[in-house]
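Form 12-C: Joint structure prediction
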Amino acid sequence: MVSDPKILKELQGIVGEEHATSDTHVMYAYSYDMSFVKNRLPGYVAMPKTVEEVQQIMKMANRTKTPVIPYTAGSNIGGLCIPEKDGSIVMDMKRMNKIIRIDEESRFAVVEPGVSHAELAEELYKRGLRFGWPVGPPSASVLSCAICHGIGGITGRYGLNSEQITSMEVVLPTGELTRVGSCAIQKDAWHSLLPLPLVGGLFTGWLGTTGVVTKLGIFTPAVPPHVEIVTTATDDLQDMYKYMLEFSRYEAADDLTAVSWWLSQVPIPYPYKEKPKDAPEWNSYAVLYAYTEKELEAKVEMFERTVKNQQKNGSSLQVTQYPEEAKRARTELPSQIVGSTKNYSKQAGGGISWPGTFTPANKWVPVWEKWREIYKKRNLSPSVRVTMYRGTHYGMLRAMTPINKQYPDQVENARMAIVEALKVLLDEGGIPYKPPVDFAKEIYSRADPGYVDLIKKVKDFLDPNEIMNPGKLWIR
Amino acid sequence: MEWNFRNVDDEGELNLKHFFWRCTACGTCRSGYTYGPPPTFRKICPQGEKFGYEGFFASKGKAALARWMTSDPVLKNEFEWTPEYLKTLYTCIGCAGCQNQCLIDFKPHIIDTIEAMRAKAVNDGVGPLKEHHILITSMKNNDNPYTGPRSVRAKWMKGLEGIKDINSESAPVLYFAGCTPAYNAPVKNLALKTVSVFNKIGIDYGSLGKKELCCGSTVLRLGARDEFKRIAEKNLETFKYLHDERGVDTIVSSCAGCYRSLLEDYSLSEGYKDYMDGIKVIHTADFLYDLYKKGEFEPKNEIKMKVTYHDPCHLGRHVKEWIIDWDGKEQWKGSYMGVEDHGTFESPRELIKAIPGIQFEEMRRNQNNSYCCGSGGGVKTAFPDWAAENAALRVEEAEQTGAEKIITCCPFCHANLNDGAKVRNSTLRTIDLVELLDEAL
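Section 2 - Result
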């Protein structure tokens, strides 16, 4: 582990002696996450409480050319908070944990980085509001999920969580404070990024390499009082895709998702297990929210009409009954059931990784067919999920991959499967989200040179000393 | 006597590695979250909230400590004890709040892992902390952790009537008062009022008097397993003798720490079933509630007071038993479910509510998601200021209910919550359930 006592002293001078350390065993807890990404010990951890402290840390880091990695809960599945360079400062944002504002009437909230989904869920629920609660642990950060293009239970209706961002306050890598969106023009106006230039894009999807977001405004829509979950099964993804394509035309579902047989098992089989011949290969659920009973009835009718039409055209589609507990897990997010990682890790141990991607929906089938073979070859379950985002032109395609982190050879086996799967996906036009460096390498190797050049220019402009999560983009 | 303690680096089925490597570091353990509806979020880990770093937080942090201790397979670190590591290890109160939250296979062995790491520290000659040594030395010299001479142990019961000397007289019930009321003056009343309540109800019971020994819980929580074994084995022999020769079939403890130890820790000895055959271990709250349900007594005196109840960790979460829902018929496949009747949550509440005139108000964090007072795991001994500071947070929460008294069922919580009240200059005081009941009978 690399650490300089002078830097530690400076950090302690900024945040207080008790909130900065380089104790090795403390560093260790920040050196890994649940993904296949290899451990690396940071040099320091510092826990700022105020925006001013964040600015001071960034200024000091620039002066000393010390890498900084922003960290909230460390629960991403891409190793995004694991340092790529020795002697890095992990800036743990947990002490900045205020829900600054919930505007019930205008339906938006302003939060600091340390606010968890659990904490915001309680406060929003009291007010009849909600957010795109992800399939993640309740402890995960609302802010980090949104700026890393996380998805949630309302993605089918409203789009990605990053599309719900209404304003931002950001400390730039060089330590200056800036605001983007309406709050940049009037400090208490947090309602919209538009119609200003979309500079919020400089801080979303950049994996913590362009600045530290210290406040975030998010749209928090109302919770409709009526809900129904409709479920189906098919023999293959082709039939499932056709059903989802037709049903999504109605824009009736807040969440329209299908999972392969392996992902629907609790827990995911590890190692690979053959699917019973009589079991459908794909299962789906659609969460239908409505403000009136009539609206809900109309949505159910749309579903029934879709099913009838699909069956008439020879689809293997069947309406199924979901266990009540599984239904609850779909509407009561953030959920302990699906968010605890229990299902994903129970038979392996300590680890989960994925090729998590945004992929054109019409490419799901060819990618799936290749993924299934890749995973089977590596003795891993092809536990794949597909979700329609707002609109039908693209959606999520990912394979939750349990790993036994106690055994490095098993981790490497999973890593190789995932990277191989990723290459197949990129060939078909899919793009991975929250990508670890192994993915970034594949992305940028294939990228248009003009795009790579632009990314480098933006990064160099914002972070001239290359201190923000260096190495994470692979090209910088 | 053979003991089946688990270790962090054993081979075979007692090995904890298999479990702490199940932790995904998801962090669900960090908060007391119920998904409702309505969803509720509560801070649950005193150590994590105080010190902040991930390694201090809940079971996620403890898995990290254990992995570091037993060498990470990628980093291949050579573990060395440091004062900072020991501080992290010994500032965990062992409250099991994280255990209640965790849903993966680390869940049943989180506390085991913490205590196994401490046992390794003691075996390696670096643990516990120097502030704890006095406690262990006292245990060796006096059979109690309070540095009080053996002769003083029975002083609290001097002149009391109705309580038999079980050493020479037979009785079905042994009242195991524990060290704290005997040696810690501010909670002496707990034992006195237990006797008073038993007498009013007409229980046939006795005490070991000055022959009573510590249960050993405090030293076990620190990792001093040899000292625990010495005292536990003596106790087991005594209990068997009392059963065979004095007709004891029930041991009643008014201390949550003793209760957990006699019930859970002693069962790790291979001879437990033989020694304890025909003997039931029960906490005062459950013992009295069972009698109340049978109609053997009824609180009749009106007490016009608003009260709240603080769940002791060792009486609730610590003795909760988990079973796995293998086929998913009850909950979901492979999920952990709490076994009914394990963990004392309802008995004290029902007894409080049975008192005429009492107004009962729950604190925000209660039962499985109760917030620990901060006294356990050797924290009160090594970090008394922080223990009281943490208790002050709990007192503040109790104040928000408008209660005039906090009721609890553990002398450690009792004493520490009153220390916490002093920290925040609060007039809100904590009393034991039996003190309240005695007034109502």
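Section 3 - Comments
Chain A has a mean pLDDT of 94. Residues 235-434 of chain A form a domain with the Vanillyl-alcohol Oxidase; Chain A, domain 3 fold (CATH 3.40.462.10).
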